[in-house]
Amino acid sequence: MYVPMHFEGITVVSKNRDVVDFFNDYVELKLPCEIINELEENYRVASTVVLFDIRALIGIDVDEFKLQYSPEFLERLIFIIPFEVSEMMRAFIIENVNYHIPFPCGSNYIRKYVEGFILSYLPKDKQVDESRLPSVFSAEVMLKKYLQGESEQMRKVRERILALSRRDGPVLLLGESGTGKTTAANVIHRLSYRGKNKFVPINVSTIPDPLAESTLFGSKSGAFTDAKNRDGIFMAANGGSLFLDEIGTASERLQSKLLTAIESGLIYKVGSNLPTKVDVRLIFATNENLRSKIENKLFRVDLYYRMAANIVTIPPLRERREDIGNISQNIVQKEGKALSYNAMRKLEEYSWPGNVRELQNCLTRALCSSKSAIIEKEDITFDCIQ
After folding, report:
1. Given 54, 113, 153, 263, which residue has the most CB atoms within 10 angstroms?
2. In this structure, are residues 86 and 22 in contact, taking their beta carbons and an 8 Å threshold?
3. Which of helix, strand or coil describes residue 290?
């Protein structure tokens, strides 16, 4: 039976010179690290974490690979995804494994990712103070309260968010407008050890481009007309979480600055050459197709793969219609009312282009217009914009 062990180091599995050289020179990691060319079948690695170069899988059936090793061993794998591998291979790994990192990337990025991963395997006396984390029971209560639905899709979303809240690294939330990405970001923060510190949300699309850098990173007196020495949003979120919504609208220059912040944990005020160290968890969200923007040279591929280490896709309401009734009843019951059968049918048959936000707005109108304790079909009206 598998017993979580004390941290024994990192094993890097790669035959490729770029990965081998990187980890041989990686003194910043400050963790025991061995490098091997390949894993023999049933290899009993002593390390807590295994970083596996996916180029070793080219030409190998992935399902057969999984059968060669115990589930306990596979749970310790973090896949290294070099930029040079095919898009098909990259997409397959991202979709089918929980933990992966892009390569090349900054040493600080890997260190933070690995340290967060390690927490899962250290005994309690070696972990961060668990009193700073909500219990699993209270976490599940919070998840069901704010991310409602009993569909299989939403159960998986809640499980993924709970797992990510116990780690510390960038998260990318994908989903249409109104699906609840902001709520999900807030929940990830509140369930993490940073939960008692600040959660700072900002919509990138609302920041005027000329002010984007100073807004996020701060400015030094004299950097531009009327500039004052002030901290930006990154410093406001220091020790907590920074939620950058609509990240797909970020300018090319801002994307470059964000890449530096993710990799090194350093920011530069506008007008200053001196870096400032920040301790911030970054949570990103978008309703855009970032892959399409990458193909059209509108979004940096290196930034995307650093953001995409942990992806949560929140499904649209029309793809989980079985959740409409549960969400609707919870909303109207708070006001002491209920939905008639015909009203519920009308809600379940609608396409909900605005997702949960539109459903909430619809029921708010219905609660206002209904003259009795039962909301009827006639009380349900939909937004005109489709």
Report:
1. 113
2. no
3. helix
What CA–CA distance (Å, rounded) separates 50 from 37?
Answer: 12
Sheet holding 33-36: strands in order across? 33-36, 10-13, 49-53, 77-82, 100-103
**Residues 305-348: tens digit of each pLDDT:** 888 888 999 999 999 999 999 899 889 988 888 999 999 999 99
CA 358 – CA 346 distance, rounded (Å): 14
Distance CA 376, CA 365 (A): 12
Q: Give the chain's count of helices (H) and strands (E).
A: 16, 14
Strand 275-277 and strand 266-268: the pairing is antiparallel
Distance CA 102, CA 272 (A): 30
Give me the phi and psi of 133, to 5 degrees please: -110, 140
Q: Tell whether omega for the bond before 104 is within 30 degrees of 0, i.e. cis.
A: yes
What backbone phi and psi angles, to 5 degrees, belong to 318? Answer: -65, -20
Which run of H or of E encompasses 101? strand 100-103
Angle among Cα 370, 374, 375 to the nearest 5 degrees reads 50
Residues of the chain with pLDDT under 70: 1-9, 25-32, 39-48, 58-75, 93-98, 106-108, 112, 115-137, 222-227, 384-386
- pTM to 2 decimal places: 0.71
Residue 285: count of CB within 10 angstroms of its CB: 25
